[in-house]
Structures are given as structure tokens and as C-alpha cells.
Amino acid sequence: MFTLPDRVRDRACSLGPSGAAWLAGLPDLVAGLAADWALTIGEPLSGGSASLVLRATDGNGEPVVLKLGQPDGPLAEQADTLRRAGGRGYARLQRFDEARNALLVEGLGPSLETAGSSPERTIEVLCALLREAWLVPRPAAPPGAPEKAASLGAFIGEAWPALGRPGPERVIETALGYAERRAAAYDPDRSVVVHGDPHPANALLRRGDGYVFVDPDGFLADPGYDLGVVLRDWLPELAGTDDPDALLRGYCRLLARRAGVDAEVIWEWGFLERVSTGLYCLRYGAPELGRRFLASAERLR
């Protein structure tokens, strides 16, 4: 019926019995949703690993996308963020089934990642889109999740020794110092509903309406966090220069100008994300990518 992407399978397997049960039940789960929502299922979309994302068409022949979250990733908050956005800055939510951890959104066009734009142009587009996405109303009862910097610091502190201490200790110490500083600066009153992972592959083209985001995490945080995620990437560009620090600092200044956020705040979030993402990839089935993130952090001053 469909080919399960290796990254999705590998991550599910890393979850142990719950992931194995999810994998075993996928054919029946997809078939049941297709019947209930009058969908014709197509091929998976590539990219992430924490969900199975399938192209589909609805009963009217319109393109849609079906997303099924793995057992450790409930989609309720994502669905709620999309519902509150109402299509502004985000894909339009069509259906959500909490019991089956599945949602359905409008079909969209190609991603910003495939547009062939320069890094500078990509950053400008993402900043403009983030400024719109940050206008999503807060939830009536914000979830009591830990502050993001503190949770990233805790993850790094636990994962680095558990994974055999990959990378130099000074990189970890720098990341943990930035985590402490960002956590201490947290101000709930100045927080926004962040996307949480606004990289170019999560910005897709809506016909006649420019780019919109998909896959929001949708939690309250410093807007600098989202900008740090944008700064986190650019691995090919960093690998291809003799001075990655100068190149990334230039991107950081552009982000600061376009979004109106302090450049040093963005830099700290970006480094923290770079290190935590590297460790996350090592733990959850993408070791080569994880090593590239950590190697890029090692080259920054």
C-alpha cells in the first residue's frame, strides 16, 4: 500500500515495544483512516522521522496530507496550533483524531528547501513567515511543559555521556552555558507561540498565497528560539568555508535585522539547537547527520 521510509522505521524501532506495536498496526491504522475520511492514499513524503506522512486525495479529488504520529509524539498540540492559526501562516487543518494520533491538512506545493534560493533569501522568507506565525493566539490553558532552554540543557547533559561523550567537552560546556543563560532570561509575558522547527523544508508553497508552515510544535517560548532553529542549519555552507564562524555570524545578523531580535540571543539559541540536534540524531537513528551537526559546532568560536 505504501513504502515506509527507513528513517521512520528506524526511529520507531528505537522506541522499543511501543514502537514495534505502532509499526505492526500501521497498515490497519492507515486503512481505517482512509475509509473513515474518504481518502485515497498515496506515497510517503520524505523528511522527518517522528511521524509517517502520506500524500492522499480526499473524496472530492483534492490533495491532502495525512500525518500519523509515533507513540511518543502526540499530535494534539500541533492540531490545536493549526486550528488556532486558521490557515494564517500555517497549513489549514481539516481533520484530527486524537485517539488514533492522526491529522489531515490541506495539500501544498513544493518546499522552500527546493526553491534554489540563496541562504540570505531563504532567511528573509522564513523571517517574514515567522513574524506572521507568531501572531497565532495563545492557547486558553497553556500546557505546563518545561521552559525550552532548560529542557534542551537537561537533554544535552543526559545524552552526551549516555552516547559515549561524542565531540569535545568544550562544545558541551558552551551549549550548557547558553542553556542556563536563555533559561534565566525567559519571560512568559514576552513569549509567543513558536513554530519550534521552522527550517526551509517545513515551509511549503500554497497556491496563490505564498509560503506557509507545516508541522508546528506550537509551544510558548522566546521568539529568538525559532530564529536559532533557522541558524542551526546551513551544514553544506559551513562545511564549504574556511571561516564558518564569520559566515554564520553574518546569517545571524541578518536574522536579527529581519526579525527585530538581539543577535546574541539568536546565536546562543542556534548553538544550543546545533548541539542538541546532533545528539538527538545520534540517539534516534540518524548518526551521520548527528556527527555533522556536532562537527559544525566544534568549528564555531
From TrEMBL:
<dbReference type="Pfam" id="PF04655">
    <property type="entry name" value="APH_6_hur"/>
</dbReference>
<dbReference type="GO" id="GO:0050300">
    <property type="term" value="F:aminoglycoside 6-kinase activity"/>
</dbReference>
<keyword id="KW-0808">Transferase</keyword>
<protein>
    <submittedName>
        <fullName>Streptomycin 6-kinase</fullName>
        <ecNumber>2.7.1.72</ecNumber>
    </submittedName>
</protein>
<dbReference type="GO" id="GO:0019748">
    <property type="term" value="P:secondary metabolic process"/>
</dbReference>
<dbReference type="InterPro" id="IPR006748">
    <property type="entry name" value="NH2Glyco/OHUrea_AB-resist_kin"/>
</dbReference>
<dbReference type="InterPro" id="IPR011009">
    <property type="entry name" value="Kinase-like_dom_sf"/>
</dbReference>
<keyword id="KW-0418">Kinase</keyword>
